[in-house]
Amino acid sequence: MANESRPCPCDIGDRLDYGGRGQEVQVGHIKAYVCKPPAGTDKAVIVIHDIFGWQLPNTRYMADMLAANGYIAICPDFFVGQEAWKPSNDWASFDDWLKTRNAGKIDKEVDVTLKYLSEQCGAKKIGVIGFCWGGAAVQHLMLKNPHLMTGVSLYGVIRFFEDRSSLLHPTFFIFAEKDDYIPLEQVTLLEQKLKQNCKVDYEVKIYPGQTHGFVHRKRQDINPQDKPYIEEGRKDMINWLNKYL
């Protein structure tokens, strides 16, 4: 069962000491981190951060990985200047903190990001990935945004949008077998609903022995037993984007 005394689906894991190869830019009313590939491209991926915000080095590392694979990667501040969650915060205050950061209320930020990618970067094919809180946001966008071509939701919190499964675009769902915050029965239920209602390509994959956040918040060098799954999750994510963008 999900741990009710700690309602947040995250601990910060192994924080990377990583500076990033991209740059911070102003995109409409928000700031964003952008990293571009060495060669020009019209393909871009919006990266939606977890509760630790757009400046978390681990998330920037993932954006840079996308750029190294040929995509313009952009990670906007979806908290719009509000403070990200800090590991030192009191978990008892998490629900109140979350009320002003709704993963289903990011459309305005996505719109300005799409405009920036199209007008400033020449992007024509745009997908989205997201982690945890951002994974739930990906599901929201796949249910309603016509301008995105595909999405990858990494351990997205199912309970945020569990009653909705009529996806508009091909979506890949990555889950961890030993996720304390997303019980496997929720994943099974999501699969059943997708099977009944979904008219587009989707895949739900559970990675054995893994815990919440494994793809972006675990360091391969200090988790040798997890390394194959971390690498597999990242490769699967890139392959899905390559297929649909």
Question: How do the helices and strands line up, and which of them pair or pack?
Answer:
Elements lengths: L22 E5 L2 E6 L7 E6 L8 H12 L3 E5 L17 H6 L7 H15 L3 E7 L1 H12 L5 E5 L16 E6 L7 H14 L4 E6 L6 H4 L9 H18 L1
Parallel strand pairs: 3-4, 3-5, 5-6, 6-7, 7-8
Antiparallel strand pairs: 1-2, 2-4
Describe the fold and architecture.
β1 and β2 form a beta hairpin. This protein has 245 residues and is α/β, with parallel strands linked by helices. It has a single domain, classed as Alpha/Beta hydrolase fold, catalytic domain (Rossmann fold). It is 33% helix and 19% strand. The termini are far apart. The chain is built from seven helices and eight strands; from the N terminus they run βββαβααβαββαβαα. An eight-stranded mixed sheet has the order 1-2-4-3-5-6-7-8, sandwiched between helices.
CATH superfamily: Alpha/Beta hydrolase fold, catalytic domain
N/C terminus separation: 36 Å
- State the helicity in percent bands: 25-40%
For the biggest β-sheet, the strand order reads 1-2-4-3-5-6-7-8
Number of helices: 7
Q: What structural category characterises the helix and strand content?
A: alpha/beta
Mean pLDDT: 92
CATH class: Alpha Beta
Report the C-alpha radius of gyration, rounded.
17 Å
Which architecture does the CATH hierarchy give at level 2? 3-Layer(aba) Sandwich
Q: How would you sum up the major sheet?
A: 8 strands, mixed
Which descriptor suits the 3D outline? globular
